[in-house]
Amino acid sequence: MPRRATRRFYSTDAESLARALLGATLVRTLDTGERLSGMIVETEAYLGIGDRASHAYNSRRTPRNESMYARPGTLYVYFTYGMHHCANIVCGRPDEPVAVLLRALEPLTGLDAMRRMRAPVIPSERPGASMKTSSSRPLRDWELCRGPGNLCRALAMDRALDGADLVSGVGVSVEIARRSPIEPASISRGPRIGLGDVGTWKDRPLRFWLRGSPSVSGPRLDGADGPRSV
DNA sequence: ATGACGATTTACT
DNA sequence: GTAAATCGTCATA
């Protein structure tokens, strides 16, 4: 199949990598040996110490974001909102805290395992208690990895994977398989999602997605192209 | 020690 | 549209 992405592939600026990752396949191997995979359809670029929306803004370097300063091809996984994990791939040059957030995949294999991971955790199975049928209808295939938090949940990715090197491939349970380049015309871009008060950085069109994919997150105001294209 | 804050998601008015 | 869930992390004291 396609070959694993090389160090060179990741050694570029965030915007270029965000585009290059679209269409690539992310493969996650569980401890059980199950292989879950999906096509990357949505990414966001975080440009580094000058990017007010970045965890590394103003050279901020703490135990949490330490892996942002690692070699290109390193995984940066963080925990937020008390319940979600988000996964990034570090790029740029070594010691440069530049990264791309993985926001959505179109599931390819291991959908049953993904559905299992996404299944809500019942607080306590109380016999006799009226089972409040969680109004949640069964998840459709295309929404299993829709959104950065859901993506990590479906693929069982957490801080244990933070700092993993996607290139060496030694004992790595996550890998990126390149694919033939995507037609530039099929890529849309727009402002990043979920940012706080970051001034003008809020509007920079650093979010990229594959036009037409149902798995792309964010508000879908129209039908054909998902979020407002730019 | 304390408090404010999330690169989110989901449910609800 | 608004709000709640939920807790690790970081800056401040």
Folded structure, characterized:
The protein is α+β, with helices and mostly antiparallel strands. The chain is 12% helix and 24% strand. It contains 4 helices and 8 strands; from the N terminus they run ααβββββααβββ. Strands 1, 2, 3, 4, 5, 6, 7 and 8 form an 8-stranded antiparallel β-sheet that branches. Strand 1 (25-29) and strand 2 form a beta hairpin. The two termini are 33 Å apart. The protein binds a DNA duplex (13 and 13 nucleotides) through residues 44, 46, 53-55, 60, 62-64, 78-84, 86, 88, 101, 103, 135-136, 147-150, 192-196, 217.
Count the beta strands: 8
Structural class: alpha+beta
Note the overall shape.
globular
Strand content: 15-25%
Determine the N-to-C terminus distance: 33 Å
Helical content stands at 10-25%
Helix tally equals 4
Radius of gyration: 18 Å
SSE sequence, one letter per element: HHEEEEEHHEEE
Largest sheet: 8 strands, antiparallel
Average pLDDT confidence is: 90
- The residue ranges in which pLDDT falls below 50 over 5 or more consecutive positions are 126-133
Secondary structure layout plus pairing:
Layout: H1 7-10, H2 14-21, E1 25-29, E2 35-46, E3 75-80, E4 84-91, E5 98-109, H3 111-118, H4 148-154, E6 174-177, E7 187-190, E8 207-210
Antiparallel strand pairs: 1-2, 1-6, 2-5, 2-8, 3-4, 4-5, 7-8
The structure holds a DNA duplex (13 and 13 nucleotides).
